[in-house]
Amino acid sequence: MKIVLCVKQVPDTSDIKWTENNTIQREGLESIINPYDVYAFESVLRLKKKYEDVTITALTMGPKQAEGMLRKLLAVGADDAVLLSDKKFAGADTYATGKTIAAAINSKFPDYDLIVCGQFAIDGDTAQTGPSIANFLDIPQVTYVKEIIEYSESCLTVLREIDDCIERVKVKLPALICVLQGDFEPSRASINGIIRAQKAVIPVYGIDDTGLEPEDAGLKGSPTYVNKAFRAPQKDVECVYTDSCTELADAIKCCGGLNE
Amino acid sequence: MSKGILIYSEITSADYVHTVVFELSNKAVELAEKLENSPVMALLLVKPDLINEFKEAFQKSGFDKVFYVVDERFGAYSTDLFAKAAIQAVKQIDPEIMLIGATCQGRDLAPRISTALHTGLTADCTGLDILDNGKLAATRPTFGGQLMATILCKNLPQMATVRPKVFKPAREDILRDTTFIKLSVDLSGYEPKTEILEQTKKFVSEINNLDSADIIVAGGKGMKNAEGFELLKRLADKLGGTVGASRTAVEMGLASPDIQVGQTGKTVNPKLYIACGISGALQHTIGMKNSAKIIGINTDKNAPIFDICDYGMVGDAFEIIPKLLDALDQR
Question: Out of A224, A239, A257, whose CB is closest to B122?
Answer without folding.
Answer: A224
